Automatic annotation (TrEMBL):
This is Recombinase domain-containing protein. One of its GO terms (molecular function) is DNA strand exchange activity. Pfam families: Recombinase (PF07508). Gene3D superfamilies: Putative Large Serine Recombinase, Chain B, Domain 2. InterPro entries: DNA_bind_recomb_sf (IPR038109), DNA_bind_recombinase_dom (IPR011109). Residues 1-90 form the Recombinase domain.
Length: 366
């Protein structure tokens, strides 16, 4: 529990030293004192990875079920291993994890942990959460795993938590906590104070959220009753469930190895303008202005730009998009899956504005 809260072996070691907790002192058969000193990071790593505490035995690199009882719940053991795996790449990965809000909390429907990684293109860094076996280069069976843009899933979690913390009375009722009217004002204030840090700190978030499971049709966010109870300052009932699940109606759409998150209305979970599409709109208007003056032909423009005349024609069509479609492009609220490539395909843009809206805008049908 201490490691899950702090998320870092070094911090655990420092805290244990501060509290005077170290390796137990024992005397060998030769009368030599052993232990009685602070636990090293290597020792702590060994303890955290030792499967014996989860009821298993490791032998020659293979883990077997043991005959002894586990002293740590399997779910907690899995969370510890997921967080250790996220940090296993050393300092470089640690920097990624420190900026990844959901480290150690994210799983797919098969209980496979997702770990934070990053990729760099030119000078831009992109963050993702990737199935752990993909990151380690071992793909078991026919499983494909997933690769989710970090900002998208983090945005969904932030939105759901903001909604939950904005109505403590409803959350308390869902968790089986009893609060009185006199307590409500203070609880509201406590939630408002705790929320900003919770939305940017992995350690703070892990005190409230125990697991986030990404399913094909929704995202399940499991809140720890103990964390909610502590935040509210209200004791939990012995009959209450240990977790409360909040489900976000977000489905998955796959493009290659990358999974995008889309709301039921077809809008992407993360509303942001597609830079390539915005550039195409600007280019379309610029080219049309040149052509409209009659000083250049499509063929000459194509030669100048180093593209085909057909491509010029397809791009220029974007200068005649319905105004509300242009607004949706700039606001990032276009129907999911619409990008610069799809917009310049042959026949992609109808002349009729209503047909354009049905094709490109979410929530619009014929």
């Amino acid at each position: 529990a201490r490691y899950l809260e702090l998320g870092n072996v070094r911090l655990v070691a420092e805290q244990l030293v501060a509290e005077g907790i170290g390796a137990p002192l024992r005397v060998s058969s030769k009368g030599q004192a052993i232990g009685g000193c602070p636990l090293t990071r290597g020792q702590l790593n060994y303890i955290l990875k030792n499967p014996i505490y989860a009821g298993n035995i490791a032998h020659k690199g293979t883990v077997h079920p043991g005959n002894h009882d586990a002293i740590i719940e399997r779910e907690k053991w899995d969370r510890v291993q997921a967080r250790l795996a996220a940090n296993v790449q050393g300092e470089r990965s640690a920097r990624v994890s420190s900026t990844s809000l959901l480290t150690g909390l994210l799983y797919d429907a098969d209980r496979e942990p997702l770990v934070p990684v990053h990729a760099r293109k030119a000078k831009t860094q992109y963050r993702y959460y990737v199935s752990r076996f993909l990151q380690h280069g071992t793909e078991p069976g026919a499983r494909t795993g997933m690769r989710i843009p970090a900002r998208e899933i983090e945005q969904v979690v932030r939105q759901e938590l903001t909604s939950l913390m904005g109505d403590p009375l409803l959350l308390a009722h869902a968790c089986g906590l009893v609060i009185t009217p006199e307590m409500l004002a203070q609880i509201n204030q406590d939630c408002a104070n705790a929320l900003p840090e919770m939305l940017r700190s992995n350690a703070k978030l892990a005190g409230i959220v125990s697991r986030i499971t990404i399913r094909t049709d929704r995202i399940d966010i499991e809140l720890a009753l103990a964390g909610i109870s502590k935040l509210f300052g209200v004791p939990a009932s012995h009959h209450s469930e240990q977790t409360f699940t909040q489900s976000a109606s977000v489905r998955l759409t796959r493009t290659g190895h990358v999974v995008r998150l889309v709301h039921d209305n077809g809008v992407a979970a993360l509303k942001q303008a597609d830079p390539s599409l915005v550039r195409l709109i600007l280019k379309a208007r610029h080219w049309w202005n040149e052509l409209a003056k009659g000083e250049i032909t499509i063929q000459i423009l194509a030669v100048r730009e180093g593209v085909s005349a057909s491509y010029i024609t397809r791009v220029v069509r974007l200068a005649f998009l319905a105004p509300d479609i242009v607004e949706a492009i700039l606001a990032g609220t276009m129907r999911a899956g619409i990008d610069g490539v799809t917009m310049v395909r042959t026949g992609a843009v109808p002349e009729d504005w209503d047909k354009q809206r049905m094709r490109f805008l979410s929530g619009v049908s014929g």
